[in-house]
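Input chain follows. Return structure tokens only.
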Amino acid sequence: MIYPIIAYGDPVLRKVAAEITPDYEGLDQLIEDMHETMRNSNGIGLAAPQIGKSIRLFVVDSKSILDNIRDEKDNEFRDEEGIEMTFINARLLGKSGKKWEYNEGCLSIPKIREDISREEEISLEFYDAQWKKHTRKFKGLTGRVVMHEFDHIEGKLFIDYVSPLKKRLIKSRLENISKGMISVDYKMKFPQKKLF
């Protein structure tokens, strides 16, 4: 099943998501559906709040983007493998390394991209789809995607990292997204869209 992506402005995107247990109803199907929804939306990460579920679950597929850019000249991520993983009940252990900028976007905030500064590495404790516990560090582009998705389950969005001036400059575009005044090639649910 392909879920509609929840657009900017919906309160679910600003909640700190709740932990789940292995007996969470329909979890295996939900994880499969999230991967399908992410692929259908041409995303490389998707968090449960982005489909309206305030639970600590997100999926990442950095392999797809790394495969696409691997042959680009002067590609700084040439040697990075990428991952396709499910993260359940992720807990931040720390961030480290020099901050670096990269142009980020978000399925919930379509057609807005900004250069965001993040640390080189993130360390998480989490469970995978088989409820195996992991403590792992992620860096490079994969680390950035993991940080972005982890932010979603903490109620944060990438635009929270832009300067006050940039926020003012994109304010009307964000309001238009909330109202559904945007065209995208995947299903979305808009919090302020007027039904006639």
